[in-house]
Amino acid sequence: MEERVMDVVPGLEGVPAAESAISYIDGEAGILEYRGIPVETLAEKSTFLETAYLLIFGHLPNKKEFEKFTNDITMHTRLKLKLLRVMEYLPENGHPMHYLQALTSAMGMYYPARNTLDPEVRYWSAVRLIAKLPTIVAATERLKHGDSPIPPRNNLSFAANFFYMLFEREPDPLLEKTLDVILILHADHTMNASTFSARVVGSTLADPYTIVSSAIGTLSGPLHGGANEEVVHMIEEIGTKERARGYVEEKLARKEKIMGIGHRVYKTRDPRGEVLKTYIKKLADQGLVDPKTVAISAEVEKVVAERLLEKHLHPNVDFYSGIVLAGIDIPTGLFTPIFAMSRVSGWLAHWMEQLKTNRIYRPTQKYTGLRAQPYVPMEGRK
């Protein structure tokens, strides 16, 4: 029988893996929409929790729905004492993403959610995951420095509460809004690696804590999360505006990647980055972003526009989000965990969508190994 010839697409690039109504990207036009609403509009007019509701449940909540959702999340932000004790016994030099993955997985033992086809199980799992991930991230940073975790406060917004658990002080309105906008902008981005991971694991009917843990593990890889950390390091390495052009041109001559430049999907400006540029200016006007950082980033952007425009390479969201997060005093090690705090809403939305018409993922492969080989006894092997 003649073997079927199969073409392999590395990374499954451009291969549709599912139908989805959650988010939409037009990479040529620089468009990102959640459930049909432009992300710029949501960043201006919405909040992260309202956006999370939109992603998960498919529509903007009415007043009653939003009050219930917000209150349920607010009342589930605390961690079990034993979960905090688990964190205390993990190594202080562990990466925060490893803490987050381990604790998310452990949460599943305290909140069993095996019956994923039960709407109540799905709802309360989503509430607990959105509510508790920021508490884990903040506690991780505190414990890393030998400090006790700060309990969450129920009278603060989602973004303000996370800031408070980190620093034991309330953010001013600009910092609160900036952090909330970052969470909105990172909440979903179609079928990226971590979302695909969530859908694959979800297709097995695994519990949501296992699903989110697997997605966090996928996000922890340097090719997915973490680029915004590298942008901050790059700006520090460049040091001055005058050195920016030489730095970029030297990188290009050696065919090395410039962190925060280019995107797998966008062939024009990343709409999320354009929103964050406005917040860099607001933070700089209040002295929260160093003018030197603004000057260096602007010069890098200028040189990139001159040299890479024909290749359709532009600054992406990571180029700006690192600068913004550093401007509001977030430690660089928390940049990717904050990404996960936001993206959990998208992962949950895709998990629930997957279950509507679920079929377990089982791709095939193109075999390239030997066939019909003889078994050689030990004494006959070289």
What would your notes on this structure say?
This protein has 382 residues and is an all-alpha fold. The protein folds into 2 domains: 19-222 and 331-356, Citrate Synthase, domain 1 (Orthogonal Bundle); 227-327, Cytochrome p450-Terp, domain 2. The protein is built from 16 helices and 3 strands. Strands 1-2-3 form a 3-stranded antiparallel beta sheet. The radius of gyration is 22 Å and the shape is globular. The two termini are 35 Å apart. The mean pLDDT is 93.
Give a brief description.
By secondary structure, this protein is an all-alpha fold. 56% of the residues lie in helices and 3% in strands. The protein has two domains: 19-222 and 331-356, Orthogonal Bundle (Citrate Synthase, domain 1), CATH 1.10.580; 227-327, Cytochrome P450-Terp, domain 2 (Cytochrome p450-Terp, domain 2), CATH 1.10.230.10.
What descriptive keywords fit this protein?
3 strands; 56% helix; 382 residues; Cytochrome p450-Terp, domain 2; mainly alpha; Citrate Synthase, domain 1; 16 helices
